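[#protein-structures] MJ: dropping Mitochondrial substrate carrier family protein P here for a structure pass
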Amino acid sequence: MPPITHASDALWNRACSAADASTSGRNQNADEEALAAAFLSDETSASEAAPLVYHGAVKLAFCGGVSGALAKTCTAPLARLTILYQVRALTAIGPPGCSTAPGLVAALRHVVATEGVRSLWKGNMVTILHRIPYSATNFWAYEATKQHLQQRVANETARAWVAGAVAGALACTAVYDQGALGRLRYADVVRALYAEGGAAAFYRGIGAEYAKVLPGMAIAFTAYETLKRLTGAGVAA
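AK: finished. structure tokens for Mitochondrial substrate carrier family protein P:
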């Protein structure tokens, strides 16, 4: 009987040791899995936070640029007519002896009949090349400035006013020369301007442009934020 008892005890001890090892292995695996999950969670959180800094700015600039180009393209026919009215190029199509320009519909019909429908968008590509960077800079600068002032300026109206003015100034400075060149569209004039005053020549009159754009953008964005707040448009349903 004693040998049998010793053999049973030995088998029991080996079984207990194997069970403890198995439990220990499972616990170790669980700890490793938990650690890996925590690491991946931290890594995922960091990767999800990064786009708020970079991708968010890119998306704002993209949306602003595309919306500006779309708006300019949709209103290009009216812009073309505005120029024709300003240079009095439409007075000749009126009745003899009449110096008054025709109405809007008559002017559109005349341009389409004499030059074709595509002529209503003549020069629109140059305008878009100016509008895309302008609108992209404008919208991005507004949102970035407003976010920067979030903890510094308590009044929402003041934040919108300052952010709108900053956005207008940055956008105007970034593409002011492109607007001038788009209106000129002559390489010889560009060369003459540069030879006369260098790069600064393309920014002549920017002070007057600031005087127009800064308060205009400040008022526009302030009105936008105020109406959004009053109508509840910025509140998620």
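MJ: nice. The two ends are 82 Å apart (CA to CA).
AK: one more thing. Residues 123-237 form one domain.
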